[in-house]
Amino acid sequence: MASRTLARGANANSPVAVLLPGTGYTIHAPLLYWSGKLLAERGWHVQGVEWEVDAAAGPVSFVEEAVTAAFEDAPGTSRRLIVAKSFGCFALPWAQREGVAGIWLTPVLTSDDVTAALRNASSSHLAIGGNADEMWLPDAVAGTRARVVNVIDADHSLTVKNDWRASLSAQSRVFDAVSTHLDELAF
Questions:
Q1: Which of 39, 50, 91, 92 has the smallest CB count inside 10 Å?
Q2: For residue 16, pLDDT beyond 90
Q3: What confidence score (pLDDT) does residue 108 get?
Q4: Three-class SS string for the chain?
């Protein structure tokens, strides 16, 4: 696994975001690519992680090692954010322990580790999933202080089956929610 700079911060005090991919969803795929562009336009330093998942490693420890290394590769700051897709959301327990805000795109809510962390998350976290995704179980995190967005008819890629226009509209709503969340974080 490795991380690389996708966008340099506007100045030495810029906040830092780490993008964590899924197992088959890279940092160049739409949800992470456009999230990175949105952050870069706001002056953030954006660090992207690329990996081949080690099946022998547990998902939480594997992802925690990657996110720790990515933040070490980026400029030091207390203003940090994780934007993760699916498998990358196994960083949720780490983010909670470290006090790092997060945007969790299609978190794997069939995992007890991810579900417990999201259930106990603060308002500095945003979770987005689609009701056509079998791994998106928003009732499992009822009572969380995190903002939870349910995208109607969207699958695990937050697209709508056999409807590119509806998919584009759904993803546009996702980026609106990401933008609003960033505004509320006041980084």
A1: 50
A2: yes
A3: 97
A4: CEEEEEECCCCCCCCEEEEECCCCCCCCCHHHHHHHHHHHHCCCEEEEEECCCCCCCCHHHHHHHHHHHHHHHCCCCCCEEEEEEHHHHHHHHHHHHHCCEEEEECCCCCCHHHHHHHHCCCCCEEEEEECCCCCCCHHHHCCCCCEEEEECCECCCCCECCCHHHHHHHHHHHHHHHHHHHHHHCC
